Amino acid sequence: MDGKCILLVRVSTESQSYDAQEKELFEMAIADGYKEENIIPICYKESGIRLKEEERNGLNDMKRYIESDSSINCVYAWECSRIARKKKILFSVLEYLVERKIQLIIKEPYIKMLHKDGKINEGSEMMFTFFAQISESEMRNKNDRFIRGKKENKSKGRFNGGRIKYGYTVDSNGKVRIDDTQANEIRYIVNTYLTTNHSQLSLYTELQERGYKITYSGMRRLLNDKEYYIDCGNAWYKPLMDEEMWHAVQAKNANNNTQTDKGKRNYFLGAKLIKCQNCGHTMLAHLGTGSYMCRHTTKQHNCECNNNIAVNINAIDSIAWHFAIQRHFVFAEQDKNTQLATYTTQKNIAEEKLATALANNKTYEDKMARAVEAYTFGKVNKIRFDALVAKIEKENEDNANAITQHKSDIERINKLIESLNSVGELFQNYARKHRKGKSSTELTDIKEMYEITHTHIEQIEVENVEVELQRGLTKCTKVTVKLFGDLGIWVTDLSSNKEEFISQGNTFELYYNPMAKRRVDEKFFTIENGEIKYQPVEWLERINRNKQKKEREARKQK
Fold it and tell me: Environment class of residue 171 by beta-carbon count within 10 Å: exposed (0-12), middle (13-18) or buried (19+)?
């Protein structure tokens, strides 16, 4: 037979073979008189139901061959479903071939679409339509059975395949079970996020330092995947935690920008605790004036508040620390075991970080050896080698700094654990230093002072008032401090040998006299029954205005 023909062969999956189809169609074409060199096989493994006509590589190749070679006069297919599973595509292909008077022959069942004169055979057309309907119906029924099977498996807890969610595993019966090891890791990550000042980014850094193999996006999915907390109707994945933790995570996410430690340089004890009495916004620490002021006084905040009150940073921080450190000792005395457990956990974490950092030393040595080897054997050029060496040396330096920091943290925590065993002595030392006018900041650094203050103080209110003092009516600042817990003392009942807590309340008023510049012991006082009582509040020199002035003048002279 003159001309050329195309063998249109298709299977749906990679596991299927089209060799048998191709062989049978090839023999059929030879029997019809086509020469071997004039037979063009087009074989693809592609879906006949999911792909559109223009996405089908086999059909596109067939059209390219036909439009580029006018000698092609026949197309062979094993059955209608091998052309396509959709009636729309089948009729489109048929119309394309009939318009060009190209014969279409189906092997199973045998259908020859055109007469010798090129006109369509109506009987063959009816058969083609019938089997086109069957092809689409078969696939529709198959999909329905597949979906029903998946739903039934899921309702019984059997896994249908795919990627299993972290925290779960598939047992020998094909059912999804909780992986205890992975589930405990997830619970630890969530608990750490909720019980610390970590943001999601700083928590990720913490986990990396402790040797956890997790990506940032993976950690975020663990924190924010609702199915870990609440039963969402998914029969595979049972909750690992409770709904209360889900709401706690969402609440922290909403407040994360203001509640987490951003690694800031200046820690002011009253920051975020003082609210403007007019607009309710947080009063900000202004370094230039050395005062806490309403946010409307700064250019970067748009606020219509007209409250121009400015309170001395040194005074507010001194008062805040005065009450916070007292509450801190009461808190520590009240529950030493809880504090000891907290510090022990922190120590274990620091030791785990140290072990990871020490293990990384070997990793950097191996990296350097591989870089030298690659350069020696010409796998990288000099520029690339220098860049690799610089990167490895920088990572090694950062790791060395991390080792030093972790060792320092362990030493600091050990001292805190030792201090818990003598809280009473610690408080006496503080009180003795306090009476002598010495600074209690020797007990801790400024960041820890900030954390202690914000652990025990809920809110601070400030108000400018006038008070009758010895020199007459004096403008003072009235400061009201509200604690999360009560202040008080523990008293031992000798008869029962039990300790009893005598509360002094959780809200206190203290006045600050800015005019008492030289007499520190007259800066702070209370008013009880109309009587002035001066209070021994330790003065924290957070901002030294004279020193700032001298530094500015020195800079100007330079």
Answer: exposed
**Which span out of 328-332, 389-393, 442-446 was modeled with the highest average pLDDT?**
389-393
Q: Are 107 and 28 in contact (CB under 8 A)?
A: yes
Strands 291-294 and 283-286 come out as antiparallel
* Cα–Cα dist 216/200, whole Å: 8
> pTM score, two decimals?
0.41
> Hey, which of 43-52, 235-244, 547-556 has the most confident mean pLDDT?
235-244
Phi, psi of 161 (to 5 degrees): 105, 175
| SS3 letters across 134-189 | HHHHHHHHHHHHHHHHHHHHHHCCECCCCCCCCCEEECCCCEEEECHHHHHHHHHH
Bridge partners, 310 (sequence order)? 293
Residue listed under structure tokens 């957070």? 542
Structure tokens at 188: 């630890």
Query: Sign of the CA dihedral 210, 213, 219, 222?
Result: negative
Q: What percent of the chain has pLDDT over 70?
A: 83
Name residue 464's beta-bridge partners: 477
CA distance 99 to 46: 26
Residue with tokens 């650094």: 445
Q: Among all chains, which residue has been given the structure tokens 């992975």? A: 182
C-alpha distance from residue 277 to each of 7, 280, 305, 477, 508 (Å): 85, 6, 10, 14, 17
Count of CB atoms situated within 10 Å of the CB of 500: 11
* Interacting residues of 272 by C-beta distance below 8 A, sequence separation 6+: 258, 282, 454
Cβ contact 335:346 at 8 Å = no
